[in-house]
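May I ask for whichever protein you like with its backbone structure tokens?
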Amino acid sequence: NNTMTGVKSMLDTMGTVLENEPDIAEAIDSCSDRCDSLRDFITSYADVVRIPTARLTRIELGERIRSMKPFLEGLAGSSLEITIKTPEKDVFADADPVLLEQVIVNIVKNSTESIMSRGGEGNIEISVTANPPSIEITDNGAGISSEASKKLFSPFFSTKRGGQGLGLMMVGEILRQHGCKFSLRTDEPTESTTPLTRFKIEFSKR
């Protein structure tokens, strides 16, 4: 938390200096907002020594995802392309904004690592759809086997060398608190298409 406070202070200063550069200012604002979310998450986590209880509020999924794009692009690096697709009409869901951001960041980080293990160039697409409200994150990385996909949300199971298997466990617990249905799978490969790995989150209809 002390580190996040220092980083946010520096970002706010940079934002003031570069306020006449709209693209840079937007990226700085996105990173500053992410610092606030991380501080809230860390504080809540430390208070109870477990994943914080989700505090659900009505949010518009498209706007929330779009606001994260500059930060996610920085997380993914310049060799990866992040595309965000949202419908023209607003898509609302009951969610904890801080915890949902943590979920999205974790999934995108995993997608980035999967692509990097395959050579370092690829695409991550984040799509928001309605009926029911859903978020799907796809990547063209190395993929996962059907056998591994059954264990990914178990504590201490990881397909990554040196991985501790806690990231997706946390994601699963957060989504269960939201009452979401979720799945992670890699499409079966064909001769004409590159298999995509899909993480789909489906929110309950109100």
Remarks:
- The chain has six helices and seven strands.
- The mean pLDDT is 84.
- The beta strands are 57-60, 80-85, 92-95, 122-129, 134-139, 181-186, 197-202.
- The radius of gyration is 17 Å.
